[in-house]
Automatic annotation (TrEMBL):
This is Uncharacterized protein. It comes from Adineta steineri. Keywords: Kelch repeat. InterPro entries: Gal_Oxase/kelch_b-propeller, Gal_Oxidase_central_sf, Kelch_1. SMART domains: Kelch (SM00612). It comes from the Eukaryota.
Length: 276
């Protein structure tokens, strides 16, 4: 990249380029957006956001635009939202969320709406969720989770429902999991994971299972890995990673393997990948 950063987002566009947005750099908040071309390995700059931010979310919409929501600017929690137009390389503002939030999650649903879940702000840790309507550019409140949480993961299941796992709140790190039903706007508690964790990854595999990898719990970084089976609603442990890590990424490869890259523990920042 042209600028080193963390607490940024990375989104794959319809043209195959990867859009990397803002974050924190060596001297603080960044107002810097870049595009990576996987074919050439070259990074180029593109238009800056109207309001720079970190710990936000970025979701690619069905029309190819990228929706960047919430986050933090300096020490201010944001409810502002912007859209990136890949054709022009520019950002426009769209409707604000009802609640300012950071360290939340966002997922595009099968109907094209974007579900934003949880997070935290100056008032505390959130259990609220909102839906963005791309056609109208507006947000509506949907059902609250049963437990407030941030640093959790969100995954789409084969039937279109949404699995939220782990994270933390005032009670500590969570082993709890919930499923959101987009048809009813309600949440259902399901079986707990075997290990409480936050800042993990969760990947939906080709067989419909969800692979939850690593993370941390009260300063202890985890190498444990679990699989959720939606058909029977249970968790099983599977082979652990070689290196305990949190704040990493996980990508599903064309052959179905899961590539885990980067991350950190209490001592090191990692560049050694692992394959599941």
């Amino acid at each position: 990249m042209n600028v080193a950063r963390y607490y940024h987002t990375a989104s794959t566009l319809a043209n195959g380029l990867v859009l990397v947005v803002d974050g924190i750099g060596r001297f603080g908040n960044l107002n810097s957006v870049e595009l990576y071309n996987p074919s050439t390995g070259i990074w180029t700059t593109t238009g800056n956001m109207n309001v720079n931010r970190y710990l936000h979310t970025a979701s690619t919409l069905a029309n190819g635009y990228v929706l960047a929501a919430g986050g933090i600017r300096d020490v201010v929690d944001l409810n502002s939202v912007e859209l990136y137009n890949p054709s022009t390389g520019t950002w426009i503002t769209t409707g604000n969320m009802n609640v300012a939030r950071a360290i939340h999650t966002a997922l595009r649903l099968m109907n094209g709406y974007v579900l934003v879940v949880g997070g935290r702000n100056a008032d505390g840790i959130l259990n609220s969720a909102e839906l963005y309507n791309p056609s109208r550019g507006t947000w509506t409140i949907t059902g609250n989770m049963n437990a407030p949480r941030y640093g959790h993961t969100v995954s789409m299941l084969a039937n279109g429902s949404v699995l939220v796992v782990g994270g933390s709140n005032k009670d500590g790190y969570l082993d709890s999991a919930e499923i959101y039903n987009p048809s009813t706007g309600t949440w259902t508690i399901i079986a707990n994971m075997n290990v409480a964790r936050g800042h993990q990854t969760a990947s939906t595999l080709a067989n419909g299972s969800v692979l939850v990898v690593g993370g941390s719990n009260n300063g202890v970084y985890l190498n444990s890995v679990e699989l959720y089976n939606p058909s029977i609603g249970t968790w099983i442990t599977t082979r652990s990673m070689n290196v305990a890590r949190g704040e990493h990424t996980a990508s599903i490869l064309p052959n179905g393997s899961v590539l885990v890259t980067g991350g950190m523990d209490s001592v090191s920042i990692f560049n050694n990948p692992e394959l599941y």
